[in-house]
Hints:
By secondary structure, this protein is of the alpha+beta class. Strands 1-2-3-6-5-4 form a 6-stranded antiparallel beta barrel. The chain starts with 8 loop residues before the first helix and ends with a strand. It has helices spanning 9-17, 56-62, 85-98, 105-111, 114-117, and strands spanning 20-25, 33-40, 43-46, 65-70, 73-81, 121-125.
Amino acid sequence: MKDKPHFSDRILAALDSSKIIGIKAGKQPHRFIGVWVVVVKDRVFVRTWDNKPQGWYQAFLAEPEGRIQIADREVRVRARKARGERLMDSIDLAYGEKYPTPGSRKYVEGFALPRRRATTIELLPW
C-alpha cells in the first residue's frame, strides 16, 4: 500500500508556527490570500471565513491544486474536503489553541459554526 503524501517536518513546523499563510487556489492567475492554518496530527487544514462564489475555497472545489506561501517559499498543494465529526472537533480545538487572543475569539468561535466547518479543506503536497 502506498503511503499518503505528507509535508516535510520542516514545512509542517513552519505551518504550525505561522499564524497566517498565503494561499492561491487553482491554476488561474490571482493573488495570494492570507488564511489561518492549523496542523492536526501532522495534517494541514484551512477554513474560509466567507464562502464567496469567486473565493479561494470555491476555486479549490473546482480545481483542487494551488500553492501556499510559507517561510519565504511557495509550495505546490492539492486540496481535499475534510470530513468526520471527530476530525472537525480536533480542528476547532486547534484553532482555539493557536489563536487564543481576545481579538481572535470572534473568528475562532465563527470557525466552529457548521457553515464554516463545512468549508474545511486539507492541504496536501502536490
